[in-house]
Amino acid sequence: MKPVDKVHSATVFIFLVVSVLCFFFYQQYSAVPSATDWVAGFMEEQRLAEDSNEKPPEALEERPPEALKEEGRGNGPCDLFKGKWVWDESYPLYNSTDCPFIDGGFRCEENGRPDNNYTKWRWQPAHCDMPRFDARGMLERLRGRRVAFVGDSIGRNQWESLLCLLSSAVADKSSIYEVNGSPITKHRGFLSFMFRTFNCTVEYYRAPFLVAQSRPPPRSPGKVRATLRLDFMDWSSSRWRTADVIVFNSGHWWNYEKTLRSGYYFQVGNRVKMEMTMEQAYRKSIETLLDWVGRDVNPRKTLVVLRSYAPIHFRSGDWKKGGSCHKETLPDLEGPPPAEAENWALRVAGEVISERARRRRRHRPPVEVLNVTQLTARRRDGHASVYNLGPGKAAPLHRQDCSHWCLPGVPDTWNELLHAVFLRWDLKNHHSLTPAGG
Ligand SMILES: *[C@@H]1O[C@H](CO)[C@@H](O)[C@H](O)[C@H]1NC(C)=O
Ligand SMILES: *[C@@H]1O[C@H](CO)[C@@H](O)[C@H](O)[C@H]1NC(C)=O
Ligand SMILES: *[C@@H]1O[C@H](CO)[C@@H](O)[C@H](O)[C@H]1NC(C)=O
Ligand SMILES: *[C@@H]1O[C@H](CO)[C@@H](O)[C@H](O)[C@H]1NC(C)=O
Q1: Architecture of domain 62-429
Q2: Bridge partners, 178 (sequence order)
Q3: Which of 7, 198, 219, 373 has its CA 20 to 30 A from that of 154?
Q4: In angstroms, how far is CA 56 from the centroid of its own chain?
Q5: What is the maximum alpha-carbon separation in the chain?
């Protein structure tokens, strides 16, 4: 090698090193801060404000209720999802006759269900209190914002419950309307209700797998009628990506009947994975969800919630196989969680999330799990059962619905929990550059 070449190589080498370093620093500083960075930043700001005896920013003057502190009272942390059901005469929070936003199938009382005890249970966390659902306050916070539910019909159940809870604070119900004029019972893929006074929409997107459904790739085996693209979010994602609160749920469609037996196979990239198990496929879908959240969602603007699986309660038999729940009038109040609490979908979602959190501590996926599986497992009394067909028409016993829930009822509790999680998140993020209040 000639000396000139040596100098040349050294220059090139140094140039490369500098470039790589620059790129690295650029990445560090241009990356959107993760949710945890954001909170840490907020805490620091709060400390500085206290140190300098300055008036804290507006949001800090609000005293968060007990439930909103990270640590609970007594001897445990505040886990909103650990606790018990207690009888509360002041429930339900609304009457179905006052809420025009409920599918006929969920109006149990109007459909003839004789007992209403299932509407009178309040969820009481073990080491803290939940803030009471404040419809007016939540609407104020949601001013100019969008809430989107994405998932299966149990997600729709929860969406309708939130419409009722929020609309209970609005006297003029005609100021709440579907933006395309679609009726609530007629399915259009998505429905979006506008609360006009608050310029806030509460939306529902049907996407039972959360990932995209597609035509099979060329030269697939004949039995493949369609595929679930496990590495792509549902095609409607561009519509809800920019919502301010997104509540996902899935699980009920991840079974043999609703996939392989109907010719729906799993696809990753260009390949149909004929041998993939249900659990592997579901895991991949949750990984795709977290990847998507990390890549496409702005954690400063959007709260992402994954509502965990809501157990079904067919006793002594399956759906259409003699299973029933129509005589259940009491929750499972005492003792260890009932068998329904054991659910592989919740386990897999939990595993994927904690794996991610372990691998990239500073970049935990900014997803809140609304862990309702166990508390819901205790509520075999809350299903629509035979009161799901309309006024005065009890369904035949072999057609009862032990998956969906009466409204008012159990999904209201999921939304009280959502309200608590949202409040906590909003208080932490209120000082954002584009505050919700405008
Ligand atoms: C529901 O109706 C009952 C009886 O009609 C009434 O006593 C109760 O206050 C109503 N509840 C709400 C939340 O409006
Ligand atoms: C409903 O609750 C009341 C009061 O606890 C009780 O007296 C009644 O027996 C219950 N009804 C049913 C059908 O469980
Ligand atoms: C209503 O809210 C949307 C965001 O959802 C915003 O883009 C729009 O400017 C708001 N309109 C008014 C009149 O405030
Ligand atoms: C959900 O809650 C149950 C009961 O508190 C707990 O055992 C489980 O680990 C939780 N799962 C997740 C994913 O948070």
Answers
A1: 3-Layer(aba) Sandwich (3.40)
A2: 193
A3: 198
A4: 32
A5: 97
- The first and second tokens of residue 111, run together, are 């459909």
Residue nearest to atom 1 of ligand 1 (CA): 95
**Ligand 3 atom at minimal distance to the Cα of residue 146:** 5
Task: Determine which helix (DSSP H) or strand (DSSP E) holds 412, and give its type and residue range.
Answer: helix 410-429
Pocket-testing residue among 199, 240, 246, ligand 3, by greatest number of atoms within 8 A of Cβ = 199
d(C-alpha 283, C-alpha 348), whole Å: 6
For 201, the enclosing helix (H) or strand (E) is: strand 200-206
Closest ligand to Cα 381 = 2
Please report, in tens digits, the pLDDT of each residue of the chain (438 residues total).
454 455 565 555 544 444 544 344 333 333 322 223 223 323 333 332 332 333 333 333 334 444 455 555 555 568 999 999 999 999 999 999 999 999 999 999 999 999 999 999 999 999 899 999 999 999 999 999 999 999 999 999 999 999 999 999 999 999 999 999 988 876 667 999 999 999 999 999 999 999 999 999 999 999 999 999 999 999 999 999 999 999 999 988 988 888 888 899 999 999 999 999 999 999 999 999 999 999 999 988 999 999 999 998 887 666 566 677 888 899 999 888 888 888 888 899 989 988 887 887 666 678 999 999 999 999 999 999 889 887 877 777 777 889 999 999 999 999 999 999 999 999 988 644 344 443
* Ligand nearest, relative to CA of residue 133: 1
Give the CA radius of gyration of the chain: 25
- How far is CA 413 from each of CA 172, 210, 385, 420, rounded to the nearest angstrom? 25, 23, 19, 11
Atom of ligand 4 nearest to the CA of 371: 1
Nearest alpha-carbon partner for 299 in 257, 374, 246: 246
Q: Whose CA is nearest to atom 5 of ligand 2?
A: 117
The answer to whether 239 and 215 have CB atoms below 8 angstroms apart is no
What are the angstrom distances between the C-alpha of 75 and each of 66, 72, 78, 127, 408?
A: 14, 8, 10, 7, 33
Phi, psi of 227 (to 5 degrees): -130, 160
> Does residue 115 have its Cβ closer than 6 Å to ligand 2?
yes
Hey, CA dihedral for 270, 276, 280, 286, is it positive or negative? positive
Sketch the domain layout of the chain as residue ranges. 62-429
H-type alpha helices, 194-265: 237-240
